Amino acid sequence: MSDPVTELARMGTDASGQIVRLHLGPFRPYLVSHPDHVQQVLKTDWTNFVREGVFWRPLQRLIGHESILGEGEGWASARKILQPLFTARYVASLAEDMADIIAERVAGLGDLTRGDSPIDVEHHMTSIVNQAVIKVLFGGRISPETAESLAPEFATCATSIGFRMLLPFASYSIRLPGDRAFLRAAKKIDEIVYPLIERAKRENNDGKEVVSALLTARLEKEGRADLRQVRDDLVNIYGAASETTAMSLIWLWQVLHDHPDVNARLQEEIDRVVGGGPVRPSHVAEMPYLRAVLQELLRVYPNAWVVPRQTVADTVIGGVPVKAGSQVLISPYTTHRLEEFWPRPLEFDPGRWTDDTGERRHRYAFIPFGLGPHVCLGQHLFYIEASLVIANLMSRYRPVVANPQKLRPVPGGATLRPKQKLFLHLQPIERNRAA
C-alpha cells in the first residue's frame, strides 16, 4: 500500500509476466502483464473485460458514466464523435496554434530564471501544457487567468482520488482522505467548463477548436447537444491531453540529467533542426531521436500505471480460471519491465527505438496508450505537444536539474507521477543572430 507502483511491478516481473493473484483483504484482483494476456483482455476478448467496478467508480464522479472512458452505448457514441478529432491530420491542423502558445510560454520562462532562480518543473510544465490544450479545446473563449485555474483543480482531482483507487472496496459512506478536496475541485471544474460550452453553443460557429467541433458533431449525429455529455467529453479530453503530457515532461528532465549522452544527442538534434528560430510543427518530423526519447520515456514511465477491468463472464487467462465479476489489473509499468521482451528493462535506452529490434518485439509489449477498441485517442496529440515543449525549451535554454535525485513513482489516480519536487535552472543559449 505504501509503494503500490513498484510493488506491482516486482510481483509481475518476479512471476515473469504470469498471472498474479493479489491478496488485499476482501479484495483479490488479478495482475495481468504478459503481452499475450494483455492482448486477450484489451483486444481479442475485450467485450468480456469492461471498464466497470470498484476502480472506476471514483473516476466516474469526474468523467461521467457515459463518456469516452465508459462502456456501452454512451462510450460508442462518444468514441464515434471524438475519433475524427484525434486523427493525425486533425491534430496537425491544430498544431500551429499550439506551437505559438507553447513558444510564447517558454520564452516567458526566461524572466523567471534571472538571478539563477530555478523553476518548479511540475508547475511550469503543467502550466505550459494547460495553455496549449485550452487553446485547442476552447479557442479564445477563456481568459489566461481562468485557464490557469483549471489545471490545479484537475491536479487536485488526480491526487485526491488516490486513496479511493488504493482502497476501492471502501464504502462511500466512509470519508477517506481526499474526498472533500476531490468534490470541491470537481465542482470548480464544472463552474469553468459549463459556461464555455454555453458560449460556444450561442456562437454556433464552425471553429476548428474542439468544443465547436464537438457541438457540431453531436448536433449532426443526434439532432441535439446534451451539455452534460459535451462537458464529459471535454473533461475527458482535457485530462488525457494535459495531465498525462505534463507528467511525462516532469520525468524527462531527471532522465536527461542521469543520461548525459542522451541529453547531448537530443540537444544536438534540436540545435541542428531548429537552431535559434521558432519551433514549428514541421520540425517535429525531422527529429527522430526526440521521438525515440519520448517512446522510451513512455516505456519506463507510462502515463497509466494501472488499467482496471472487470470480467463479465467466467473465462481463462494464461491457464488461470477467472470468475465473472472479478477485477483484472493491466499494468503497463510492469509489462514494460519484463526482461523477456525488454533486455536491460531498467535501463533508459532510446536506441531501442532507432534500431531494428522493434521488429522482433512482441506487438503488445509496449502499451502506454492501451490497445484495441479502447485505445487512447490522444497519442498523436501527445507526441506533437510534448515534442513542441521539449524542442522550444532546449532550443532556448540549457536545462539543468537544480536538485537531482532518484524520483519515486506514486499513483496520482490512474496516472503515474513522481513523489518528489523537481527544480530546473534554465541557462539561456547565446546565439549569433547575425549568423
Please give a structural write-up.
The chain is an alpha+beta fold and 435 residues long. The protein has helices at 4-14, 35-44, 56-63, 72-82, 88-112, 121-138, 144-160, 162-166, 179-203, 210-222, 227-258, 260-273, 281-284, 288-300, 332-335, 379-396, and strands at residues 20-21, 30-32, 49-50, 119-120, 307-311, 315-317, 320-322, 327-330, 397-401, 409-412, 415-418, 423-428. The strands form four sheets. The chain has a five-stranded mixed β-sheet. The protein has a three-stranded antiparallel β-sheet with strand order 4-12-9. Strand 6 (315-317) and strand 7 (320-322) form a beta hairpin. The longest helix has 32 residues, at 227-258. The chain is globular, with a radius of gyration of 22 Å.
Pick out its properties.
435 residues, 3-stranded antiparallel sheet, 10% strand, alpha+beta, 5-stranded mixed sheet, 16 helices
Topology:
Layout: H1 4-14, E1 20-21, E2 30-32, H2 35-44, E3 49-50, H3 56-63, H4 72-82, H5 88-112, E4 119-120, H6 121-138, H7 144-160, H8 162-166, H9 179-203, H10 210-222, H11 227-258, H12 260-273, H13 281-284, H14 288-300, E5 307-311, E6 315-317, E7 320-322, E8 327-330, H15 332-335, H16 379-396, E9 397-401, E10 409-412, E11 415-418, E12 423-428
Parallel strand pairs: 2-8
Antiparallel strand pairs: 1-2, 3-5, 4-12, 5-8, 6-7, 9-12, 10-11
Helix pairs in contact: 5-6, 5-16, 6-7, 6-11, 7-9, 9-11, 11-16
